[in-house]
Known about the structure:
Layout: E1 21-29, E2 35-46, E3 56-60, E4 86-90, H1 117-131, E5 137-143, H2 145-156, E6 161-167, H3 175-188, E7 194-195, E8 198-199, H4 204-217, H5 222-228, H6 234-249, H7 253-264, H8 279-285, E9 289-290, E10 301-303, E11 309-312, H9 322-327, E12 334-336
Parallel strand pairs: 3-4, 3-5, 5-6, 6-9
Antiparallel strand pairs: 1-2, 2-4, 7-8, 10-11, 11-12
Amino acid sequence: MVARAHHHPPMKPGMIEARHRRWAAGRMKLEGGEAIEDFELSYVTHGKLSEAGDNAVLVAASLAGNHHRLDFLIGEGKALDPQRYFVVCADPIGNGLSSSPSNSEKQPGMRFPRFSIRDMVQSQYRLLTEELGVKNVLAVVGASMGGMQALQWGVSHPDFMRAIAAITPMAGDGPEALEVAQTGGSALLPDPARGGERFVDYPERGWAAWSGVMSVLAGRTPRALAEMIERPLDTLKWMDKVTADNRANGFDATDWLYQSWAYQAMTSERPGTSTAISTRHCSRLRRACWCSHRRSTCSIRFRVRRSWPMRFRVPSWLRFHPRRAIKRPLRCRPTMRSS
């Protein structure tokens, strides 16, 4: 069985063209005990590392995303200005650019070992320290699953960064998010194109059902759909377009399943432990936790050892100014809730 080549999605307006780099790390041991053979991590950089090595920023990608995920934040005068920062955008394990079920020669398809969010973080840590010579970063930035990686960074390597910019993250999957991801996977698995260890052809029916679940039902409220689409029957044409766009992106179905399993299993813990985030870890994470919501304040909830939730309340003025989260780490006080 031959794995396909590393697949880069088509360039779209707003994406930044940059030299693609690959770090060959050899055998990458995973926290579950297995290992990825001939592991490679894909990444791009913007800007230059200062002589003091104190201007690096790591950007983590979302589920089914890549190093272009937060390109809208990168550029002159923007939050991640390459004239000021050395921005490293890393492709997570399983996204089709870094080592994945779709491109592994020795472990293709379902032979690929399962990995976790913590494995993604550890591979990024090794990239920064072993390949790029970065000893610490100003911030770890990520959206959605990238934000989950940012939170895990704060637990796995709390002294490595000065700030965390976690956009719409979760410290662990809630029931709704778990069901959405599980249903998305259930839409792909029964497709006739799946033959044993991998999909032998493009899963037409599976991706169509997946698009309906992930991009429409879970991604839009009824009110949002009503505002977007004037006539109800036009919804079907719009869904066909969404399905076509998802196909054009070329993301591999098996890769999505593997990343979704890591997403579903997410609990922000220290490697080698079974305890949830402790109060000590929370105090480190609250150095600069920023998340983007439409509310005047937003919350990142953690389960602490004393069995109550802890919330970090973030002022509304920080919502649309991620640069401030990097320039001036936020000192916010946790508030306890009894619920």
